[in-house]
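Project standup — Tuesday

K.O.: blocked on the structure for the chain from last sprint. Re-posting the sequence here as requested.
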Amino acid sequence: MGERYIKGRKSVRVEKYLVNLLCRAGSIEKARTRLEALKGGLSLRQYFELKSEILEFEGRFADAIDAIYSIPDRLEFTEDYTTHLTYLYMKSEQFEKAFEISSSFLKDRNYNPNYRADIINREFSKKKLGRNPKVQNLNRIVENSASDPDCRAGALLVLGEHDQAYEIFRSESDNDFSKLEGYLRWPIAQVISDKLAALRDSLTSSKRTLDELVSIESGSKISGSGDIS
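H.V.: unblocked you, prediction finished:
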């Protein structure tokens, strides 16, 4: 049934974005209904990732984790799979598990510095467990992530440089307001959640409301929506 809604990669991006908007607007049942209507037009990976996102918005982190484990070909995209799982384990405050998964992933890849998100998740989880993070690994990310401002900000947060991280988030949100909700959901950014929430309130007055965005039909053009994964 979902094939008639999905007519290409762009349509999948739009539908994923709309499901995300419905969740952010608190319309969880509408998001779930839309996902089920699309089921036949999505790959199993796309379906379970969106299902996991809906469950995350409900605060059902164990079920969200189970949805990721349900993806049959998850080992074919190990990096995304690992990053998503550690994110959910951090959301549920299972930092030992998040540290274990990210450490195993990085060890198998000789702690390659290109896996920035996994390094940040590992060092953040380590810090939450009362252990000292590897400062040199985080400094390397700060110094070499000019093209990846989100990871640069994440590393700065783990290093305790909250003001610098906030300025990056503010600049990125000015350019793409949709990124701000993601920052507010990020466990690493909870230390500055009050400032981010205040930023959202100030930007919302000059942006379209979530209710307006949710009303957009799947075939409509969404400016600057990007791919939500």
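K.O.: great, moving the ticket to review. Residues 7-58 form one domain. Confidence is low (pLDDT under 50) at residues 1-10, 216-229.
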